[in-house]
Design goal:
Elements lengths: L3 E5 L4 H13 L4 E8 L15 H28 L4 E7 L2 H11 L4 E5 L5 H7 L2 H8 L4 E4 L1
Parallel strand pairs: 1-2, 1-4, 2-3, 4-5
Helix pairs in contact: 3-5
Length: 144
């Protein structure tokens, strides 16, 4: 049975390191590279009285284009290692979407980077890696 590894990515150095780790330690596996667009990251386009809908739409389109470019680059990296590559682009809460993909795509293992938030930032923003690790039905490897 072939192994299926999910690598959530965000364009950071840690995400690239996680992908390299997955390719090195799970050779022969099918690798699905996932990028999640978090609509909350665009909240600066609204306040209590007014929403810049056009600006929001433009920023969202830029995010989507950037995500598609990233996924193409990651796919090329996986295929250059001789492994099967799949890419997924989702929108929503990153931890929730990652967990949904684990179930929907029959993933056997998750490899992801950690941004290493600590202190107040971790309390306020949480940790996607921590949430996924805590709630995942499959093993999760965090690359730091």
């Amino acid at each position: 049975m072939d192994q299926h590894v999910l690598v959530p990515v965000d364009g950071s150095d840690r995400a690239e390191e996680a992908l390299e780790y997955a390719l090195e330690h799970f050779s022969g596996a099918t690798v699905t590279v996932l990028h999640v667009i978090d609509p909350v990251s665009l909240i600066g386009y609204a306040d209590d009285e007014w929403v810049d809908f056009e600006g929001y739409q433009e920023a969202r389109e830029r995010q989507r284009e950037r995500a598609e470019t990233l996924l193409d680059e990651y796919r090329d990296t996986v295929e250059s290692h001789g492994q099967n590559a799949e890419t997924l682009l989702e929108t929503g809460d990153p931890a929730d979407r990652i967990l949904d993909v684990i179930d929907a795509e029959n993933v056997d293992h998750v490899v992801m980077g950690s941004r290493g938030r600590s202190g107040v930032r971790r309390v306020l923003f949480g940790s996607v890696a921590e949430t996924v690790t805590r709630r995942s039905p499959v093993p999760v490897t965090i690359v730091r």
